[in-house]
Amino acid sequence: MKVERVTRDTLTVVTEGEEETRELGARLGALLRPGDVVALHGNLGAGKTRLIQGIARGMGIERPVTSPTFILMNVYTGPDGRTLCHVDTYRLHDPVEEGYELGLDQWLGGEDVCVVEWAERIRPLLPKDHIWVEIVILGENTRRFTFHGRGERARARVRALARALAPPEARADFSPVPRRI
Q1: What is the DSSP letter of 14?
Q2: Three-state SS across 48-93?
Q3: Are strands 37-42 and 130-137 parallel, antiparallel or unpaired?
Q4: What is the pLDDT of residue 181?
Q5: Is residue 52 a contact partner of residue 27, using CB atoms and an 8 Å limit?
Q6: What global pTM score does this model have?
Q7: Band of the pLDDT at 83, cuts 50, 70, 90?
Q8: 66: left (phi over 0), alpha (psi -120 to 50) or beta
Q9: Is residue 162 packed enough to be buried (19+ CB in 10 Å), middle (13-18) or exposed (0-12)?
């Protein structure tokens, strides 16, 4: 796993293989708290489900995590009581309208950690504060993940992920509190 770029609002990471993608997800999952929303955007086969499997692992969830493509949503509870709501909007015909009818707007930003596959299809339902993740296929096993913090809470999670991925000697550079020299 290689960190390519870090800014105030953005983190870009390249993974080589499914296990690195899951590890990236696990690092993020350990940081997520109730009410956090992670919106995933990427082509078929980009690694959305693998990232969510890692998020679940990072939250301590041991049950197998599969994509809810035909059932819309799976809910998993971790040992610490945090709940992961995994949403897949790929099969919705009128995603925004059906999303409102299904109450997705109430789930997103509620009491659970919510991760949405094909999030671009329900963009109006997303809370203003969320992590937007663009996933690009670079090669057979190589993926680029760009995490955008949209809102102060999401930016704090992206910065925390950047710190978690940085080598120990560089972690102080990602401190949210300005350092005095």
Answers
A1: E
A2: HHHHHHHHHHHCCCCCCCCCCCCCCEEEEECCCCCEEEEEECCCCC
A3: parallel
A4: 38
A5: no
A6: 0.89
A7: very high
A8: beta
A9: buried
Altogether, the residues listed in the chain come to a count of 181
CA 124 to chain centre: 18
Please state, in angstroms and rounded to a whole number, the distance separating the CA atoms of residues 124 and 97. Answer: 10
33 vs 98: which has the higher pLDDT: 33
- From the number of C-beta atoms within 10 Å of its C-beta (0-12, 13-18, 19+), residue 56 rates as buried
**C-alpha to C-alpha distances, 145 to 6, 39, 79, 81, 137, nearest whole angstrom:** 12, 12, 28, 28, 9
> CB-side exposure of 4: number of CA atoms within 13 Å?
10
* Residue (of 46, 44, 113, 111) closest to 74 by Cα position: 113
pLDDT digits (tens, 9 = 90+) for 13-43: 999 999 999 999 999 999 999 999 999 999 9
Residue ranges and CATH numbers for the domains of the chain are 2-170 (3.40.50.300)
- pLDDT, position 104: 83
Quick one: pLDDT at residue 68? 75
Angle at 75 between CA 71 and CA 78, to 5 degrees: 155
CA torsion through residues 121, 45, 161, 110, sign: positive
Nearest to 37 by CA among 148, 130, 156: 130
- Residue 66 scores a pLDDT above 90: no
